Amino acid sequence: RMHAVLVWFDVQPQRRADFHEAMMVQAANSLALESDCHYFDVCTSEQHPNRFFLYELYTDAAAFQTHLDSDHFKSFNEKVTPWVTGKSVETWKRQ
């Protein structure tokens, strides 16, 4: 069973484009640099233009922790945190 991670971000309207660009780089880095990151989908809301949704799949919880400990994640997180007005993270087991 895979480890699924669902993340919602609300961002400042004036930083939406910056956040989107940084998020797309982060998704590409996660897939390229982490062999246990199998899927990293970035979605935007049609009803709430400043809301982003991520769907990520990892081999297991340890692989997700490796992701959180990675330099590319830490750099991304430091960059975007000032732009984020809300964030929610849920972890799931894919059946």
Number of E-type strands:
4
Give the overall average pLDDT. 97
Distance between the termini: 6 Å
- Rg from Cα: 13 Å
* Overall shape: globular
Low-pLDDT residue intervals, each spanning 5 or more residues: none
Q: Which structural class fits the helix and strand makeup?
A: alpha+beta
Strand content: 35-45%
Strand order of the largest sheet: 2-3-1-4
Quaternary structure classification: single chain
Tell me the number of helical segments per DSSP (H or I, 4 or more residues long).
3
Q: For the report, how would you describe the main beta sheet?
A: 4 strands, antiparallel
Query: What is the share of helical residues?
Result: 25-40%
Order of helices and strands: EHEEHHE
Could you characterize the architecture of this molecule?
This protein has 95 residues and is of the alpha+beta class. It is 39% helix and 37% strand. Helix 1 packs antiparallel against helix 3. The longest helix has 18 residues, at 16-33. The chain starts with a strand and ends with a strand.
Task: Give descriptors for this structure.
95 residues, alpha+beta, four-stranded antiparallel β-sheet, 3 helices
What topology does this entry show?
Layout: E1 3-11, H1 16-33, E2 37-44, E3 51-58, H2 61-69, H3 71-80, E4 84-93
Antiparallel strand pairs: 1-3, 1-4, 2-3
Helix pairs in contact: 1-3
Describe the structure concisely for a colleague:
With 95 residues, this protein is of the alpha+beta class. The chain has helices spanning 16-33, 61-69, 71-80; strands at residues 3-11, 37-44, 51-58, 84-93.
